[in-house]
Write a structure and sequence with these properties.
Order of helices and strands: HHEEEHEHEHEEEHHHEHEHEHE
Strand content: 15-25%
Shape: elongated
Distance between the termini: 41 Å
CATH topology of the largest domain: 2-enoyl-CoA Hydratase, Chain A, domain 1
Largest sheet: 8 strands, mixed
Helix content: 40-55%
Low-confidence stretches: 84-88, 299-303, 307-326
Number of domains: 2
Number of strands: 12
CATH superfamily of the largest domain: 2-enoyl-CoA Hydratase, Chain A, domain 1
Structural class: alpha/beta
CATH architecture of the largest domain: Alpha-Beta Complex
Radius of gyration: 27 Å
Mean pLDDT: 80
Number of helices: 11
Length: 331
Protein backbone atom coordinates (compact mmCIF):
# COMPACT_ATOMS: atom_id res chain seq x y z
CA UNK A 1 0.00 0.00 0.00
CA UNK A 2 2.74 2.47 0.99
CA UNK A 3 4.81 1.62 -2.13
CA UNK A 4 1.75 2.07 -4.38
CA UNK A 5 1.14 5.49 -2.87
CA UNK A 6 4.76 6.43 -3.42
CA UNK A 7 4.62 5.39 -7.08
CA UNK A 8 1.39 7.33 -7.54
CA UNK A 9 2.92 10.46 -6.04
CA UNK A 10 6.00 10.14 -8.26
CA UNK A 11 3.92 9.72 -11.41
CA UNK A 12 1.83 12.82 -10.67
CA UNK A 13 4.90 14.93 -9.90
CA UNK A 14 6.66 13.81 -13.10
CA UNK A 15 3.58 14.44 -15.26
CA UNK A 16 3.00 17.89 -13.74
CA UNK A 17 6.68 18.81 -14.13
CA UNK A 18 6.77 17.68 -17.76
CA UNK A 19 3.56 19.53 -18.59
CA UNK A 20 4.75 22.80 -17.09
CA UNK A 21 8.18 22.35 -18.71
CA UNK A 22 6.51 22.06 -22.11
CA UNK A 23 4.35 25.12 -21.45
CA UNK A 24 7.32 27.11 -20.20
CA UNK A 25 9.43 26.17 -23.20
CA UNK A 26 6.67 27.07 -25.63
CA UNK A 27 5.81 30.41 -24.03
CA UNK A 28 9.24 31.71 -23.20
CA UNK A 29 11.77 29.99 -25.50
CA UNK A 30 10.27 28.66 -28.72
CA UNK A 31 7.77 31.36 -29.78
CA UNK A 32 8.85 34.90 -28.67
CA UNK A 33 11.87 35.95 -30.77
CA UNK A 34 12.22 39.22 -28.83
CA UNK A 35 13.12 37.48 -25.59
CA UNK A 36 16.74 36.51 -25.22
CA UNK A 37 17.53 32.83 -24.98
CA UNK A 38 19.01 33.18 -21.52
CA UNK A 39 16.03 35.01 -20.04
CA UNK A 40 13.69 32.53 -21.68
CA UNK A 41 15.53 29.59 -20.16
CA UNK A 42 15.47 31.18 -16.68
CA UNK A 43 11.76 31.89 -16.85
CA UNK A 44 11.10 28.42 -18.21
CA UNK A 45 13.00 26.89 -15.31
CA UNK A 46 10.93 28.97 -12.88
CA UNK A 47 7.73 27.68 -14.46
CA UNK A 48 9.04 24.12 -14.21
CA UNK A 49 9.71 24.67 -10.50
CA UNK A 50 6.18 25.97 -9.98
CA UNK A 51 4.80 22.97 -11.82
CA UNK A 52 6.81 20.57 -9.70
CA UNK A 53 5.51 22.18 -6.52
CA UNK A 54 1.90 22.12 -7.69
CA UNK A 55 2.29 18.51 -8.76
CA UNK A 56 3.80 17.61 -5.41
CA UNK A 57 0.91 19.24 -3.54
CA UNK A 58 -1.66 17.47 -5.69
CA UNK A 59 0.15 14.15 -5.27
CA UNK A 60 0.33 14.67 -1.52
CA UNK A 61 -3.42 15.14 -1.29
CA UNK A 62 -4.28 12.24 -3.62
CA UNK A 63 -1.60 9.81 -2.41
CA UNK A 64 -0.62 10.70 1.18
CA UNK A 65 2.64 9.13 2.24
CA UNK A 66 1.42 8.01 5.68
CA UNK A 67 -0.98 5.49 7.16
CA UNK A 68 -0.32 5.88 10.90
CA UNK A 69 -0.85 9.05 12.95
CA UNK A 70 1.39 9.94 15.87
CA UNK A 71 0.14 12.31 18.56
CA UNK A 72 2.41 13.37 21.44
CA UNK A 73 1.49 14.09 25.05
CA UNK A 74 4.52 15.75 26.60
CA UNK A 75 4.93 17.62 29.87
CA UNK A 76 2.28 18.34 32.53
CA UNK A 77 -1.28 17.89 31.29
CA UNK A 78 -3.51 20.96 31.57
CA UNK A 79 -6.66 22.18 29.90
CA UNK A 80 -5.08 24.88 27.74
CA UNK A 81 -1.35 24.66 28.40
CA UNK A 82 -1.50 27.10 31.29
CA UNK A 83 -2.96 30.53 31.69
CA UNK A 84 -3.02 31.18 35.40
CA UNK A 85 -1.35 33.93 37.44
CA UNK A 86 2.02 32.19 37.10
CA UNK A 87 3.17 31.06 33.64
CA UNK A 88 3.28 27.28 33.29
CA UNK A 89 6.06 25.39 31.59
CA UNK A 90 6.06 25.93 27.82
CA UNK A 91 6.40 22.15 27.51
CA UNK A 92 3.03 21.54 29.17
CA UNK A 93 0.39 19.71 27.15
CA UNK A 94 -2.86 21.50 26.27
CA UNK A 95 -5.40 18.66 26.43
CA UNK A 96 -7.82 20.34 24.01
CA UNK A 97 -5.07 20.46 21.36
CA UNK A 98 -4.30 16.76 21.82
CA UNK A 99 -7.99 15.82 21.57
CA UNK A 100 -8.26 17.87 18.37
CA UNK A 101 -5.25 16.09 16.87
CA UNK A 102 -6.61 12.64 17.70
CA UNK A 103 -10.05 13.50 16.31
CA UNK A 104 -8.45 14.93 13.15
CA UNK A 105 -6.43 11.73 12.73
CA UNK A 106 -9.58 9.67 13.22
CA UNK A 107 -11.36 11.65 10.51
CA UNK A 108 -8.42 11.28 8.09
CA UNK A 109 -9.25 8.44 5.70
CA UNK A 110 -5.54 7.69 5.21
CA UNK A 111 -4.92 6.97 8.90
CA UNK A 112 -5.40 3.34 9.88
CA UNK A 113 -3.78 3.33 13.33
CA UNK A 114 -2.86 5.71 16.15
CA UNK A 115 0.46 5.89 18.00
CA UNK A 116 0.12 7.95 21.18
CA UNK A 117 3.55 9.00 22.46
CA UNK A 118 3.52 9.63 26.21
CA UNK A 119 6.20 11.52 28.10
CA UNK A 120 4.34 13.12 30.98
CA UNK A 121 4.36 13.09 34.80
CA UNK A 122 0.57 13.57 34.80
CA UNK A 123 -1.54 16.61 35.40
CA UNK A 124 -5.14 17.69 35.73
CA UNK A 125 -7.77 14.98 36.09
CA UNK A 126 -10.52 15.94 33.63
CA UNK A 127 -8.15 17.01 30.79
CA UNK A 128 -6.37 13.64 31.18
CA UNK A 129 -9.69 11.85 30.90
CA UNK A 130 -10.62 13.88 27.81
CA UNK A 131 -7.50 12.60 26.04
CA UNK A 132 -8.24 9.05 27.20
CA UNK A 133 -11.76 9.27 25.76
CA UNK A 134 -10.42 10.60 22.43
CA UNK A 135 -7.98 7.67 22.19
CA UNK A 136 -10.73 5.24 23.16
CA UNK A 137 -13.09 6.37 20.40
CA UNK A 138 -10.41 6.28 17.69
CA UNK A 139 -11.54 3.83 15.02
CA UNK A 140 -8.53 1.58 14.60
CA UNK A 141 -5.60 0.07 16.53
CA UNK A 142 -4.19 2.38 19.22
CA UNK A 143 -0.82 1.90 20.86
CA UNK A 144 0.41 4.09 23.72
CA UNK A 145 4.18 4.38 23.88
CA UNK A 146 5.95 5.53 27.06
CA UNK A 147 9.27 7.18 26.36
CA UNK A 148 10.85 8.65 29.51
CA UNK A 149 7.83 8.94 31.82
CA UNK A 150 4.25 7.67 31.72
CA UNK A 151 2.99 8.46 35.20
CA UNK A 152 -0.32 9.31 36.81
CA UNK A 153 -2.40 11.19 34.21
CA UNK A 154 -0.22 9.67 31.49
CA UNK A 155 -1.17 6.19 32.69
CA UNK A 156 -4.80 7.34 32.90
CA UNK A 157 -4.57 8.21 29.18
CA UNK A 158 -2.87 4.91 28.33
CA UNK A 159 -5.83 3.02 29.80
CA UNK A 160 -7.85 4.18 26.80
CA UNK A 161 -5.49 2.53 24.28
CA UNK A 162 -5.34 -1.06 23.10
CA UNK A 163 -1.78 -1.54 24.36
CA UNK A 164 0.93 0.22 26.33
CA UNK A 165 4.56 -0.16 25.27
CA UNK A 166 7.57 1.17 27.17
CA UNK A 167 11.35 1.05 27.29
CA UNK A 168 13.16 -0.90 30.00
CA UNK A 169 14.13 2.36 31.67
CA UNK A 170 10.83 4.18 31.30
CA UNK A 171 9.12 5.39 34.49
CA UNK A 172 5.58 4.00 34.66
CA UNK A 173 2.78 4.05 37.23
CA UNK A 174 1.93 6.55 39.98
CA UNK A 175 -1.72 5.51 39.84
CA UNK A 176 -3.01 7.99 42.38
CA UNK A 177 -4.48 11.44 42.92
CA UNK A 178 -3.10 14.33 44.93
CA UNK A 179 -4.70 17.53 46.13
CA UNK A 180 -2.80 20.37 47.73
CA UNK A 181 -3.31 23.77 49.27
CA UNK A 182 -1.06 26.52 50.56
CA UNK A 183 -1.55 27.31 54.25
CA UNK A 184 -0.60 30.95 54.53
CA UNK A 185 -2.52 31.73 57.72
CA UNK A 186 0.61 32.11 59.90
CA UNK A 187 2.29 34.32 57.30
CA UNK A 188 -0.86 36.43 56.99
CA UNK A 189 -0.92 36.92 60.76
CA UNK A 190 2.73 37.99 60.80
CA UNK A 191 2.22 40.64 58.13
CA UNK A 192 -1.04 41.86 59.63
CA UNK A 193 -3.53 40.26 57.26
CA UNK A 194 -6.76 38.68 58.43
CA UNK A 195 -9.38 36.58 56.67
CA UNK A 196 -12.99 37.74 56.83
CA UNK A 197 -15.53 35.29 55.50
CA UNK A 198 -18.46 36.19 53.25
CA UNK A 199 -19.85 32.98 51.78
CA UNK A 200 -23.10 31.13 51.22
CA UNK A 201 -22.69 27.40 51.76
CA UNK A 202 -20.72 25.80 54.55
CA UNK A 203 -17.87 24.50 52.38
CA UNK A 204 -17.72 27.31 49.81
CA UNK A 205 -14.35 28.55 51.09
CA UNK A 206 -12.89 25.18 52.08
CA UNK A 207 -9.20 25.27 51.21
CA UNK A 208 -8.80 29.05 51.27
CA UNK A 209 -5.09 29.59 52.08
CA UNK A 210 -5.57 32.53 54.50
CA UNK A 211 -7.35 30.50 57.17
CA UNK A 212 -6.70 27.30 59.06
CA UNK A 213 -8.37 24.20 57.66
CA UNK A 214 -11.08 22.83 59.92
CA UNK A 215 -11.22 19.07 60.47
CA UNK A 216 -14.58 18.69 58.72
CA UNK A 217 -13.21 20.67 55.76
CA UNK A 218 -10.20 18.38 55.63
CA UNK A 219 -12.50 15.34 55.53
CA UNK A 220 -14.60 16.99 52.82
CA UNK A 221 -11.59 17.70 50.59
CA UNK A 222 -10.09 14.27 51.24
CA UNK A 223 -13.42 12.78 50.16
CA UNK A 224 -13.08 14.50 46.79
CA UNK A 225 -9.59 13.04 46.40
CA UNK A 226 -10.86 9.58 47.33
CA UNK A 227 -13.69 9.80 44.77
CA UNK A 228 -11.26 10.76 42.00
CA UNK A 229 -8.94 7.96 43.07
CA UNK A 230 -11.71 5.37 42.83
CA UNK A 231 -12.52 6.68 39.35
CA UNK A 232 -8.83 6.37 38.40
CA UNK A 233 -8.71 2.79 39.67
CA UNK A 234 -11.88 1.96 37.75
CA UNK A 235 -10.51 3.45 34.51
CA UNK A 236 -7.25 1.52 34.81
CA UNK A 237 -8.95 -1.70 35.87
CA UNK A 238 -11.39 -1.63 32.95
CA UNK A 239 -9.08 -0.24 30.28
CA UNK A 240 -5.98 -2.29 31.15
CA UNK A 241 -7.90 -5.41 32.22
CA UNK A 242 -6.30 -5.39 35.66
CA UNK A 243 -7.82 -6.40 38.98
CA UNK A 244 -8.93 -3.29 40.88
CA UNK A 245 -7.41 -4.56 44.13
CA UNK A 246 -4.06 -5.06 42.39
CA UNK A 247 -4.21 -1.46 41.13
CA UNK A 248 -4.85 -0.21 44.68
CA UNK A 249 -1.99 -2.35 46.00
CA UNK A 250 0.48 -0.42 43.84
CA UNK A 251 -0.18 2.49 46.24
CA UNK A 252 0.72 4.98 43.50
CA UNK A 253 4.29 3.67 43.23
CA UNK A 254 6.36 4.26 40.12
CA UNK A 255 8.17 1.41 38.39
CA UNK A 256 10.84 1.07 35.77
CA UNK A 257 9.51 -0.28 32.50
CA UNK A 258 10.98 -3.76 32.97
CA UNK A 259 9.34 -4.21 36.38
CA UNK A 260 6.10 -2.64 35.14
CA UNK A 261 6.07 -5.22 32.34
CA UNK A 262 6.58 -8.07 34.81
CA UNK A 263 3.64 -6.79 36.88
CA UNK A 264 1.39 -6.43 33.85
CA UNK A 265 1.23 -2.63 33.96
CA UNK A 266 2.94 -2.58 30.53
CA UNK A 267 2.06 -4.93 27.66
CA UNK A 268 5.35 -4.92 25.73
CA UNK A 269 8.87 -3.59 26.00
CA UNK A 270 10.47 -2.25 22.85
CA UNK A 271 11.77 0.62 20.80
CA UNK A 272 9.93 2.86 18.39
CA UNK A 273 11.12 0.64 15.53
CA UNK A 274 9.66 -2.41 17.28
CA UNK A 275 6.30 -0.65 17.46
CA UNK A 276 6.45 0.20 13.76
CA UNK A 277 7.07 -3.48 12.97
CA UNK A 278 4.14 -4.46 15.18
CA UNK A 279 1.82 -1.98 13.47
CA UNK A 280 2.93 -3.23 10.05
CA UNK A 281 2.04 -6.77 11.09
CA UNK A 282 -1.35 -5.68 12.40
CA UNK A 283 -2.15 -3.74 9.25
CA UNK A 284 -0.76 -6.57 7.11
CA UNK A 285 1.78 -4.37 5.35
CA UNK A 286 5.46 -4.59 4.67
CA UNK A 287 6.00 -1.34 6.59
CA UNK A 288 4.08 1.68 7.82
CA UNK A 289 4.64 5.40 7.35
CA UNK A 290 3.99 7.56 10.41
CA UNK A 291 2.83 11.18 10.23
CA UNK A 292 3.15 13.40 13.30
CA UNK A 293 -0.09 15.31 13.85
CA UNK A 294 0.40 18.72 15.43
CA UNK A 295 -2.02 21.46 16.57
CA UNK A 296 -3.42 23.70 13.85
CA UNK A 297 -2.66 27.13 15.31
CA UNK A 298 -3.05 30.55 13.68
CA UNK A 299 -0.12 32.96 13.52
CA UNK A 300 -1.15 34.97 16.58
CA UNK A 301 -1.40 31.81 18.66
CA UNK A 302 2.16 30.88 17.66
CA UNK A 303 3.33 34.38 18.60
CA UNK A 304 1.55 34.02 21.94
CA UNK A 305 3.28 30.70 22.58
CA UNK A 306 6.64 32.36 22.00
CA UNK A 307 5.74 35.14 24.42
CA UNK A 308 4.73 32.53 26.99
CA UNK A 309 8.19 30.94 26.78
CA UNK A 310 9.76 34.32 27.54
CA UNK A 311 7.39 34.87 30.47
CA UNK A 312 8.14 31.42 31.83
CA UNK A 313 11.89 31.96 31.61
CA UNK A 314 11.47 35.22 33.55
CA UNK A 315 9.05 34.01 36.17
CA UNK A 316 9.66 30.30 36.65
CA UNK A 317 9.53 29.25 40.25
CA UNK A 318 7.61 32.31 41.50
CA UNK A 319 4.53 31.18 43.43
CA UNK A 320 1.34 33.28 43.46
CA UNK A 321 -1.56 33.41 45.85
CA UNK A 322 -3.83 35.60 43.68
CA UNK A 323 -6.66 33.14 43.47
CA UNK A 324 -9.93 32.77 45.33
CA UNK A 325 -9.04 29.27 46.47
CA UNK A 326 -5.73 27.43 46.29
CA UNK A 327 -6.79 23.79 46.39
CA UNK A 328 -5.14 22.13 43.39
CA UNK A 329 -6.13 18.70 42.21
CA UNK A 330 -4.07 16.59 39.85
CA UNK A 331 -3.19 13.03 39.05
Amino acid sequence: MVEARGIGRLVIVLVATAAFAAVGYALFVYYPESVTDLLGVLVALAVVGIGARIGSNVAGSLFPGYDVAEVAVEGPITRDGGGGPVPSSPRSTPADDVVEQIDRADADGNVDALLLKLNTPGGEVVPSDDIRLAAERFDGPTIAYATDTCASGGYWIASGCDELWAREGSIVGSIGVIGSRVNASDLAEKVGLSYERFAAGEYKDAGTPLKELEEDEREYLQGIIDDYYETFVERVSDGRDLDAEFVRDTEARIYLGEQAHELGLVDELGTRRDIEDELADRLEREKVAIEEFEPERPLMARVGAGAQKVAYAFGAGIAGLAAEREFRLRT
